[in-house]
Design brief:
With 146 residues, the protein is of the alpha+beta class. The chain is 27% helix and 39% strand. The chain is built from 3 helices and 8 strands. α1 (15-22) packs across α3 (116-143).
Length: 146
Amino acid sequence: MAKHISTRVLIRATPQTVWNTLTDFEAYPQWNPFLRSVRGPVAPGKVIQVELQQPGSGTIAMKPRVLVFEAPHTFRWIGHLLFRGLFDGEHSFEIRDNGDGSSTFIQSERFGGILVPLLSRMLDTKTLKGFTLMNEALKDRCENVK
């Protein structure tokens, strides 16, 4: 079973500004309501430590492997619950240049594994809401850079 969720937001800032904000992991506690922290060597093939907090839930610690980290456009990782095939998620951040000084930020995730049907409702509510909250907070931070 597979599932895909995706969100997007228009940000009135350049892709480089969005990228710099997205990858300033030390600042996440100041503005990011969904991804509370990202630690470790963020480079393809490396395992990082991520803490996320879905709305109305506690913090979840994960150790995904970075798949792509290409400034200023793509950051992608893959994580597994316990072992591959149980509940897997490939998370993606994409920044598209709109050619007018603005960017489109797309946050998405492809889920797979035998637990997807059991967790589908949570993905459609809490996870999707977490993506949206983060997107809006990123937009606010990028557009209000001093």
